[in-house]
Design a protein that fits this description.
Largest sheet: 4 strands, mixed
Distance between the termini: 12 Å
Order of helices and strands: EHEHEHE
Strand order of the largest sheet: 2-1-3-4
Shape: globular
Structural class: alpha/beta
Number of strands: 4
Radius of gyration: 14 Å
Strand content: 25-35%
């Protein structure tokens, strides 16, 4: 079980956002070795016009997941997120790609 919430600046086309949502599914399912039926991703846009140049080209990912994910799997998620950001937006538009993983031990 996992849920990904990505945060990107509000400036991209619908086509680019759709590509990114599909890429986030890859990050989740390949990264955590999960079947596609459990894919759960969400995209949130933020206004970056009041931000500095780095923030305007930053992408963030928050991962909520159940306990038991290995360090190797978490590392894959981080690597895949940066790779997919570069593929979808271009490396010049992804100065910072940060990931926060929140692991919940309570099965409920």
């Amino acid at each position: 079980m996992a849920m990904l919430v990505a945060f990107i600046p509000k400036k991209y086309s619908q086509e680019t956002k759709e590509k990114f949502i599909a890429a986030l599914g890859d990050v989740e399912c390949i990264g955590f070795d999960m079947p596609r039926q459990f894919e759960h991703v969400y995209l949130q846009e933020f206004y970056a016009d009041h931000s500095d140049a780095v923030m305007q080209r930053s992408k963030f990912l928050v991962v909520y997941t159940g306990a038991g994910k290995t360090l190797k799997a978490k590392g894959r998620v981080v690597e895949l997120f940066k790779k997919k950001c570069d593929e979808v937006f271009g490396p010049e538009d992804t100065v910072n790609a940060a990931v926060a993983i929140e692991e919940h031990t309570n099965w409920m």
